[in-house]
Amino acid sequence: MMLLFHQFVSPGSRKIRLMLKEKNLEFDLQIEKTWERRPEFLALNPAGEVPVLLFEPGGHPISDATAIAEFIEESFPDRPLLGQTALERAEIRRLIGWFDVKFNREVTQNLVDEKITKRLTGIGTPNSQAIKAGYANIHYHLDYIAYLSDRRSYLAGADFSLADVTAAAHLSCVDYLGDVPWDQHPGAKEWYARVKSRPSFRPLLADHIPGMPPPRHYADLDF
Amino acid sequence: MMLLFHQFVSPGSRKIRLMLKEKNLEFDLQIEKTWERRPEFLALNPAGEVPVLLFEPGGHPISDATAIAEFIEESFPDRPLLGQTALERAEIRRLIGWFDVKFNREVTQNLVDEKITKRLTGIGTPNSQAIKAGYANIHYHLDYIAYLSDRRSYLAGADFSLADVTAAAHLSCVDYLGDVPWDQHPGAKEWYARVKSRPSFRPLLADHIPGMPPPRHYADLDF
């Protein structure tokens, strides 16, 4: 059985959980408190970050969400999530980069890292300027999601892909905080409702950080 | 002829330039001052960032360094830079992530963005705390390069790969500032000397930002 080391509000971990479920693959989950820097975990991934996938017990660990996602797609090509042609894959990967780099820098780090990670690790205090920037920046990204899904059905084209998975992985972390202004962005909300209602998404909706419960609408498919 | 929109000290741009040369592909270069937010460029890449590759004049633009690199590898599989097996590719992509995410956050942003980008764009003033952090963080990464190249010859294995390209793309930007303490890291220096002497690297050594010349050793193969 595969084993995924993860954290609840880590977008990279959520990406891999969603992807494995979309591929109908069985796996076990283990929460890794990376800030404790457990030597056994550092031996698996010297970067000290989740996600890490152990493809088989005692096997070679695979680290880095992008590397894991590409490895899964290559190893399990059924139910493709990366398109059929080189150009389709380029568009999907462009949007993966959009969310993993740009959205991450402009929104996820400013909200999730400031409000949750700093509290969990006990390192630093939330920076109110960063949080303010996160609130301001998210609108532009929700507009872009509405723009894309209106023209293409899903973000990168007619089919659900790793671009949708990646965007939803980030947004669901922000949504755990109740910080996504869905009501002001009906187009993005319509897209998210479709993604959220996929069976692969269900386990994420049961995530619960002790002492930091999500808002009620977080797990509600009719939010 | 392919056209690459780039900037001199953009690690993503340098990655694609190196990769195209390693594949013996012909291309034209055009510097894009992304901070001017030229509408024609934003139409090619709404993220407003380099690199962007126009595969053919008027053709579909490909944006995001990772997406471009994967597209080139798929379209031109000769002289492979991403390994042969899924596990080899996973290791190469893990190290690409190491440099594009971790090294970028801990070193490149603290040194290159603070010292060069802020001056070029005229936005903000260099943050001395960030620069100090960049100087401190680079040692650990140079140690890791020495550790890997000592055991494997190249960073991800026996062969030169996109992991070496990515690491060298970042380090060469920092080296343009003269901020790589090579003399304290002979193992990393030995690896870099091998990469720097590849024919694909030569055009990067001629890069010259007006008013911000590189130190003399930057272009010297015997540095």
Automatic annotation (TrEMBL), chains A, B:
This is Glutathione S-transferase. Keywords: Transferase. Gene3D superfamilies: 1.20.1050.10, Glutaredoxin. Residues 1-80 form the GST N-terminal domain. It comes from Elstera cyanobacteriorum. InterPro entries: Glutathione-S-Trfase_C-like, Glutathione-S-Trfase_C_sf, Glutathione_S-Trfase, Glutathione_S-Trfase_N, Thioredoxin-like_sf. Pfam families: GST_C_2, GST_N_2. GO terms for biological process: glutathione metabolic process. Signal peptide: none annotated. Homodimer. Residues 85-221 form the GST C-terminal domain. The keyword Transcription regulation does not apply. GO terms for molecular function: glutathione transferase activity. CDD domains: GST_C_family, GST_N_family.
